[in-house]
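Course exercise 7: structure representation. Students receive a sequence record and must write out the corresponding structure in token form. The form below is the worked example handed out in class, using GTP cyclohydrolase 1 type 2 homolog (294 residues). Read each field label carefully; the graders check that inputs and outputs are placed in the correct fields and that the protein name is recorded exactly as given.

STUDENT ID: A-19
EXERCISE PROTEIN: GTP cyclohydrolase 1 type 2 homolog
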Amino acid sequence: MTVAQSPTVTDVVAVLEEHYPPAWAEEWDRVGLVLGEPEAPVRRILCVVDCVPETVEEAVAVDAQMIVAHHPLLLRGVSSIAPTTYKGRLIHRLIRAGIALYTAHTNADVANPGVSDALATRLGLVDLRPLRPATGLAAGSGRGTGRVGRLPHPVTLAELTELAARALPPTAWGVRAAGTPGRKVTTVAVCGGAGDGFLGDAVAAGVDAYLTADLRHHPASEYVAEGGPALLDAAHWATERPWLDDLATHLCGALGVETLVSDLDTDPWTIHARSTTAQREPTPRADDTEEHSR
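STUDENT ANSWER:
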């Protein structure tokens, strides 16, 4: 679409909803304009994964008039937005600073290109297709959750894990893997964000490895034990941050506004220490205890 030189919040929303229609979002999701005067001019947009105090202050510092976030601020209902509450403080701060807030979440996940395309590109995957094709209003045109692709050449699981750790934004969590380190990997499924619910889709796709976030202990161990794909578990924020670059490029090209991407690591896990073998006194055997008691 063509907009005037000084786009408004309404103009930005129109571009976003043309690319990521709210109707594509899951029923439980909360996407769209959260706050902001529709006719307010927008000169600079900050793209973030999470609308949290740190990214709100970053928007204030760079003089952004709008934040486009991936995760909804008001996903669950609240009974108060008083400034004495966590979400209330954020909302009051945004209003005082004149910053609009927009969310594109699961509608951006299923888009083509969308969140998982950016993740797949970071790993160098080619010949992409949806991991779980979209249904309903979002069906068709390669849309769907996650992506399945092929590496340019086979690598071992250990090498893929190192590649993912280098390709994704750094976090304390890093990347961990489940499977035989020397396993050869050619086909890979990825899903930005929490992908535990798509383990079955990765098995059905016949991929060698599946990279996502927030994998749980029991499902992961069972899928690996049953001969499923090797699993790579990265930080949630890190798997979705690559999409912000695509989002910013699209907004800049469509609106001619300055777009910035937040690299603030908003993953909640901030410390990681490798386990070490503690030096402990050996537990006495029964016969030793009997000997010492004599």
